[in-house]
Amino acid sequence: MTIPTDPETGKFVRAPNHFAARITADGRDGWPVEPGRYRLVVSRACPWASRSLVVRRLLGLEEAISVAVADPIQDERSWRFTLDPDGRDPVLGIRFLAEAYQAAEPGYDGGVSVPAIVDVPSGKLVTNDYPQITLDLSTEWTAYHREGAPDLYPEKLRGEIDEINQAVYRDVNAAVYEAGFASQQSAYDEAYSRLFARLDQLSDRLSRQRFLVGDTITEADIRLFTTLVRFDAVYHGHFKCNRQKLTELPVLWAYARDLFQTPGFGDTVDFDHIKRHYYQVHEQVNPTRIVPKGPDLRGWATPHGREELGGRPFGDGTPPGPPPAAEALPPQW
Amino acid sequence: MTIPTDPETGKFVRAPNHFAARITADGRDGWPVEPGRYRLVVSRACPWASRSLVVRRLLGLEEAISVAVADPIQDERSWRFTLDPDGRDPVLGIRFLAEAYQAAEPGYDGGVSVPAIVDVPSGKLVTNDYPQITLDLSTEWTAYHREGAPDLYPEKLRGEIDEINQAVYRDVNAAVYEAGFASQQSAYDEAYSRLFARLDQLSDRLSRQRFLVGDTITEADIRLFTTLVRFDAVYHGHFKCNRQKLTELPVLWAYARDLFQTPGFGDTVDFDHIKRHYYQVHEQVNPTRIVPKGPDLRGWATPHGREELGGRPFGDGTPPGPPPAAEALPPQW
């Protein structure tokens, strides 16, 4: 995998999401909400894709939207279905996610990213617009939410959620990549400083309240969680985000454990996929492709004490049940 | 710098020390103990060289044996005196340590390592045999030890010290390099497992006694210290020794802080040299040569509580005074 950086500044340049059609209840983009019609393609390694796995679980959309899990190791054709029998996704019948991109736009030669939602009948990619995907699962798929599903994007809190999401995106979700993929010291230094300044500010906020916005789990928590859960496993060492480990930031560590131990969060996390992806794909950062045996992950199961702050994780709703058997993960430590 | 590994196993192959003459009180190798005659060449980045810096300080040999500090960044000619005016060591008058190796053995084309002791009058390298260098400072230079110098290698404890030194060398001092320089997963895995098994065993031992052997500081503590003090700064991330940080291993962390805060230990440690050396020289491990800004080092100054275990750090002796002004280091955090 080649990591694109600006030759002048050494800053990592993230490719834009190209396919931004929306699947909506009214079908205005030509893609109506319809259970069984779409397939969500993810890598469990990828923090952007993992958001949609968490939201799908919390909302109980597992029956309505099936999931395809790509091999955590991409090759030059990007995400592959090499974990499946014969190396083909059993529903889409394709070997590479790129085939769905090609079906949607013949001749497409841009990036191939997850999460991606594919229209099963036509085999065409509908969207890889990850920030919109999770919001649409919350707001457009309501007819198929489970009984007791939480409202992850409550109307009256959207302003505050959007605002914090923007800061978390810039200074946390994206900043870890900007630190890790920087090709010049100054670009790294700037991303590192911005990251830890924001983590300090979030720690302060979360020392007084159990969740980021309001008193229930929202989209904002999910977006922070998918970076925090990867922090010690990959960002701390591989991306040099090493002022402290997450385990050394008491508030954020307790906050992350609280979410991890909530049904729908930790049961989507595959640390093996996460570690192998980052350490084996980014040869520009880790040329030996050796995957560290650490860190010791057992701390994720320890008591977090966050109940003392109050909060109602699912508001007036309930936690989801266990994941479907086909999606259950092996023990993580 | 090219890292030599076995093509079959991926194991790092350490070059032997080539020059093993000894400087002794009786001068039997042709190199008699004589104050002012020899120059100790070190890099403050290097754990092997740092042993001799600590021993020299503890024994008060600063006047008897002067020190040359090489630039932490080697080039293809190895250690350089680029920190000195005109890039020349002011005493030896050479630009590269390799010149002293050449003076000792014209045509020598093996490795150039620190610590190295050079005979000032002839400019010839005497020895780069680091395990013997520190023992000889303790046992052959006694006539020039300071008043109150500790006995770092007491006769009646030598068997026990030698035994623990052997285990610490194999499973700690060398194992971190074997983990970090492995070119195959299996070689890394083996070194990692051996390292942490030994650290667990040392933690257990040090939970009951303040120092490794007897109740005073000995050579054994110095050899463990120089690896532990580098652990979180470089071995944890750069060498993937990441089961835990040292800060997460309570006994070893307190033990390391106890030594760090003892005059003669922490005052020899330059974290800037350590980090720049490892991250900038080993391009096979860190091709971007970016140096992490972390970890937060302030914990090194926090109380360690090890006094409760008893022990007499300097036995019947006393701690050394501060380092000579010319060797004092800038604040480390």
Task: Describe the secondary structure blueprint for this structure.
The structure is a homodimer of 333-residue chains.
Chain A: E1 38-42, H1 47-59, E2 66-69, H2 98-104, E3 116-119, E4 124-127, H3 130-139, H4 158-173, H5 175-181, H6 185-206, H7 219-235, H8 250-260, H9 271-281
Region (Disordered) (chains A, B): 290-333
Site (Lowers pKa of active site Cys) (chains A, B): 235, 278
Protein name (chains A, B): Glutathione-dependent reductase
Helix content of chain A: 25-40%
Indicate the mean pLDDT of chain A.
97
Oligomeric category: homodimer
Reported by name, the CATH topology of the domain at 155-327 in chain A is Glutathione S-transferase Yfyf (Class Pi), Chain A, domain 2
User: Spatial order of the strands in the main sheet of chain A?
Assistant: 2-1-3-4
In the CATH scheme, the class of the domain at 155-327 in chain A would be Mainly Alpha
Low-confidence stretches of chain A: none
Which of globular, elongated, flat, extended, rod-shaped describes the shape of chain A? globular
The chain pair with the largest interface is: A-B, 29 and 29 residues
Instruction: Output the structural class of chain A.
Output: mainly alpha
How many angstroms does the end-to-end distance of chain A come to?
29 Å
Would you report the number of β strands of chain A? 4
Described by strand count, sense and barrel closure, the largest sheet of chain A is: 4 strands, mixed
The helix count of chain A comes to 9
Q: What integer value in Å does the Rg of chain A equal?
A: 19 Å
